Amino acid sequence: MARKETAADAANAGRLKQIALTYQMTRKADKKIGLVLAAVGIGTLGVFLAIGFLIGHPVYLGIFGLLIALLATAIVFGRRAERAAFGQMEGQPGAAAAVLDNIGRGWTTTPAVAMNRSQDVVHRAVGKAGIVLVAEGNPNRVKTLLAAEKKKMNRIVADVPVHDVIVGNGEGQVELKKLRTTLLKFPRVLTGPQVTATNDRLRALGDLMSNMPLPKGPMPKGMKLPKGGPRGR
Questions:
Q1: What stretches pass through the bilayer (predicted)?
Q2: Which of 114, 98, 233 lies closest to 164, judged by CA?
Q3: pLDDT tens for residues 33-78?
Q4: In this structure, what are the phi and psi dihedrals at residue 95, rounded to the nearest 5 degrees?
Q5: DSSP letter at 231?
Q6: Residue 193 carries which DSSP code?
Q7: CA 174, CA 167: separation in Å to the nearest integer?
Q8: How far is residue 138's CA from residue 112's CA, in Å, rounded to a whole number?
Q9: Which of 69, 142, 153 is nearest to 110 (CA)?
Q10: Please, are residues 11 and 18 in contact by the beta-carbon 8 Å criterion?
Q11: How far apart are CA 203 and CA 160, in angstroms?
């Protein structure tokens, strides 16, 4: 019993520490977070207390109002913390990959499946919606990367739908904070076994490419690399 209580206390301490760290991170980007949370909590509790006095049950409404106030404060804190996190990530290399890593169960993500010298990059996510290619970088350059990767996907898994998304704030692009929602809105057309089979085929392709033997020594005179050679990852 003592061990269970110790583990529970450690877990609670870990949660409190995580909340404190999240608050500190959020406060760096949102200076008014403390005032907002206090206003939400006190305001919600005040409304329920006022109703309680009006109907003659201030204690019951006060307790219920306290629970609702805590819930409302937690919801507002979560949303502002998420907004602050996206604000700090936006424009940073690999931000889209970080969002994809936290998209949720049922999705398998592979960062940087294609990249060019300018550090424009394409990530891949596989789920019941099919294959989603997510690009971040210069909108004009990433279109070339997306087209090449989409063509490759259509050759390997021709029976699986392939979507493409460009992360950004321009026309036809998806904002970073809306990336997860956008992927979840794609229609689900694959079953669980089909998703697994698709991942297996893509994984086998990756293993094949990484294990492909390369000739040693200098390149034979007059030999040229094919134009469709593999890109750096």
A1: 33-53, 59-78
A2: 114
A3: 888 889 999 999 999 999 998 998 888 898 999 999 999 998 888 8
A4: -65, -40
A5: P
A6: H
A7: 5
A8: 15
A9: 153
A10: no
A11: 15
